[in-house]
Design brief:
Distance between the termini: 4 Å
Structural class: alpha+beta
Number of strands: 5
Number of domains: 1
Shape: elongated
Helix content: 25-40%
Strand content: 25-35%
Strand order of the largest sheet: 4-3-2-1-5
Order of helices and strands: EEEEHEH
Number of helices: 2
Largest sheet: 5 strands, antiparallel
Length: about 90
Amino acid sequence: MVRFNNRNRPTEEQLTVWCEPNEDGFRLKRREPSGHVHTQRFSSRSTLYDATVRLQVELTESGWQPVVDAALPASRQRAVRSGQFHR
């Protein structure tokens, strides 16, 4: 799970992204600050990864930046910065 903040919005407004495995493959989920959840389904890890990279580019170009949690171990922080969404 990765949380994003936008400098142009109040700090408490965060966007959250995570993935979940399911019987059909994987679901990439995004919760907007309003609480609305968007879900995309992917049949393979490679299509999930491609969509994750595209989403991260889209979010960062829109001003959203990943929030690095100080409580996370360094290895998980590297994964967050490299654009892999972990739950």
